[in-house]
Amino acid sequence: MKHFTSIKQLEDLGATLEAAKYVKENPFADQELGKNKTLLMIFFNSSLRTRLSTQKAALNLGMNVIVLDVNQGAWKLETERGVIMDGDKPEHLLEAIPVMGSYCDVIGVRAFAGLQDRDYDYSETIINQFIKYSGKPVFSMEAATRHPLQTLADLLTIEEHKKTAKPKVVLTWAPHPKALPQAVPNSFAEGINMTDYEFVITHPHGYELDPEFVGNAKVEYDQRKAFEGADFIYAKNWSAYAGENYGKILCDDRDWTVDEEKMALTNNAFFMHCLPVRRNMIVTDGVIESPQSLVIPEAANRVVSAQTILKEILREL
Ligand code: CP
Question: How far is residue 136 from each of residues 38, 40, 53, 249, measured CA to CA in Å?
Fold first, then answer.
């Protein structure tokens, strides 16, 4: 594997999940693979889980790790070509990227959608510039449209907890005070569409995701109906994707909060969320603290997903 920006790049999802289970049981089995190799993790946005889990994964593989927060301590970076750089950004990404590439063997990048220009966001300009100009393998630590390490951890968590071969998985929109990107729901949908699970997406009108990610999922606008008989509820907020409303908040209806009454409609479903989560906006205290909540093991599996992908990248160095 050279670069990793989408779960769809996995040729055999079943084999990758088996590889992930092996990594989970044998976290230090491949310490030689990363010896004298350096991972550079570049953050354009904040992170708790991705930062710590990816670093831990690299250490498990014997790698050295450098972390750069672009907005704290580095020169402010211009990302567009053709700009006359007479403002507050003293360095261009097109010099910074090859310089960063010269200091490491593998690069992880976190760069969220700006939510101002859909075409710009969906062309994945920043991570693609790293792929083009760094000369090194690049993997996504959440880009504008996808969060594949999260999705791999989510799929592993479902595999570990499912009680039937083809569980009903529901991706539900839930309210949030800020406009958030579509990367997590896009990527989750992309991943679930690679399985043979029953898949339902529920959200208020206006929150339709890019059809490329929705695929063959059933879209149900009645959240309670969607929850009926579900085995897994995956909650997430996202801003509007469609047309002129791109990046906007269209609804703050608290009736979409995942609560005990709606969970009672399910088949004793597990609750999932990628975290961080706004309690009593996205989900009630009672649901997230219930025995059916998987948010902690799901986050723990982020080490496993990162290590599984890093291992594949290191093998091809
Ligand atoms: N789920 C996730 O990516 O968490 P962080 O934003 O804290 O990395």
Answer: 11, 10, 21, 37
